[in-house]
Amino acid sequence: MKRWPILLLIAALLQACGGGGGSGDIPAETPPLAQSCSIPSQRQQLRDFMQAQYYWYREMPAPDGNAPTMDAYFQSMLYRPTDRFSYSEPTDLYNQVFTEGRRTGYGYTLVWTDATRMELRVRNVEPLGPAARAGLARGDRVLAIDGYTPADIAAGRLPIVTTPGVPRTFSLASAAGQPKQLTVVSEDFALSPVAAVNTFELPGPGGPAKIGYLAYNQFVTYSREQLQAAFAQFARDGAGEVILDLRYNGGGSVVVSRELASLVGGALTVNQLYSYLRFNDQQAGRTQSLLFEAPEATAGTPLGQGLRRVFVIASGGTASASELLINGLKPFVEVVLIGETTYGKPYGFVPFEMCGATYQAVQFESLNSQGVGGFTAGFQPTCAVADDLEHQLGDPQEGRIAAALAYVATGRCSAGTAAALRAPKPAQEPRTIGEAWPRGMFVD
Predict the structure, then answer these.
(1) 102-190 and 194-428+437-442 have identical folds
(2) Is the peptide bond before 150 cis (omega within 30 degrees of 0)?
(3) How far from the centroid of its chain's Cα atoms is residue 342's Cα?
(4) Which residues make beta-bridge pairs with 167?
(5) I need a labelling partner for 366 at 20 to 30 A (CA). Which of 88, 167, 286, 396 fits?
(6) Close Cβ partners of 93 (under 8 Å, ≥ 6 residues apart)
(7) pLDDT level of residue 398 (50, 70, 90 thresholds)
(8) C-alpha dihedral (15, 20, 25, 30), degrees to nearest 10
(9) Which residues have CB under 8 Å from 112's CB, separation 6+?
């Protein structure tokens, strides 16, 4: 099997944080001095950064000197339509989510379930957020929020809340059709990237088969202990198969992605090439190779020997570091995808902080040990299964989980699912309302 040459192995990388310290041979971008934050100075610094660091610097358009904001100025330099990935955000928000593990708000996302955008349902609820405590649940149908109808919300009339102490009233019908009226007050709450952990049993001729299940929503460093604990639990339970539910995982840390993949690969993948991160030709010295690690959480157990097959539940929102994991495991492990075609983002960032804004401009592309990258069309599912909002994540009756369990039992897609879906991926990610995770893949 052909391998990409290992140019640089970074033994330990830290979670990305705007303006923070770096590691290895990838120094963090230096934030400008406070006195350099005039608009002309910011534009010059951002233009210099893009000309040196941007992956498509050769195709970069001339910046719009009349752009009304720094974000608009940044957007004017992006190589469209190829670059549908780069974005900017306030540094405080970036740091809050990726380094502090917190968010200010209510803790929910909604999704339209019909083409006319008239039926709005709760897609996901943060376990430690105020909405969950008030009783908001996956599958609830939204009749109104603060008096705004779904049509109003589709038109963007529902105000965005980013401060604590703001009450919000939800008029709902549960998945079973029962009316619900909730009042939720926004607050600063801890995020739960590991949303659910379970071990399922399936009857078999030699006794019940054990299948570990992990719902994981973001690759962040503060989830490491939870990931290790989940796999240690799977090992104690005697799990011989694992389902990774990444349907709402838009990405995050490259290194944490490598750590989760190493828990799957175990001894089978130790010291093999996980991902080759290729920067532009001006930044060739930053190009690096990441190797699979030896996972301690399952050392000395059958699970620690490595899985020869893993199930990944995916959707159009499965992106970036999640797709890196899929691509990185494929040369070594059979990856069975359940759900929808993934987003298609083989590119990543080294966050650049300047004057209170963090810019995520594409700086590298990722390839696996066979040199495979460029998966902009996403990864197609082995079994195409719609998202099942009638059941909670972790429920074995939920449609995508049930399809994975049926595949374990029979070795094929169950009735009602389509093998090797050939439909093209959506032109854009499914539109959601609320506090969705940021999307991205970051070198730490």
Answers:
(1) no
(2) no
(3) 11
(4) 185
(5) 88
(6) 162
(7) very high
(8) 150
(9) 119, 120, 154, 430, 431
Q: What is the pLDDT of residues 62-103, one digit of tens each?
A: 999 999 999 999 999 999 999 999 999 999 988 988 889 999
List the CATH code of the domain at 194-428+437-442: 3.90.226.10
Beta strand pairing status for 209-216 and 241-245? parallel
What is the CATH class of 102-190? mainly beta
Every domain of the chain and the residues it spans: 102-190, 194-428+437-442
> Looking at the predicted structure, is the pLDDT value of residue 26 above 90?
no
Mean pLDDT of 399-426: 76
Q: Which residues, other chains included, contact 273 with Cβ-Cβ below 8 Å and sequence gap of 6+?
A: 3, 4, 6, 289, 290, 291, 292, 368, 369
Contact 179, 141 (CB under 8 A): no
**Helix-then-strand count for the chain, H and E:** 9, 24
Q: Could you tell me how many residues make up the chain? A: 444
DSSP character for 86? -
**CA distance from start to end of the chain:** 29
- Alpha carbon distance 222, 96 (integer Å): 12
DSSP 123-154: EEE-TTSHHHHHT--TTPEEEEETTB-HHHHH
Give the pLDDT confidence score for residue 98 in this predicted structure. 87
Do the Cβ atoms of 441 and 348 come closer than 8 Å?
yes
272 sits in which H/E element: none
pLDDT score at 12? 28
Beta strands, E only, 264-373? 273-279, 288-291, 309-314, 334-339, 347-348, 352-354, 357-360, 364-367
pLDDT band for 187, please (50, 70, 90 cuts): very high
Give backbone dihedrals phi and psi of 215, rounded to 5 degrees, phi first: -100, 120
Query: Could you tell me the two tokens for 71?
Result: 């974000």
Provide the whole-model pTM: 0.88
Residues 369-373, mean pLDDT to the nearest whole number: 97
**What residue type is assigned to position 161 of the chain?**
V
Give per-residue pLDDT as tens, 339-361: 999 999 999 999 999 999 999 99
Chain centroid to CA 347: 13
The per-residue pLDDT for 237 is: 96
- CB contact burial 210-230 (16+ within 10 A = b; e otherwise): bbbbbbbbbbbbbbbeebbeb
What tokens appear for 112 in the block? 């339209």
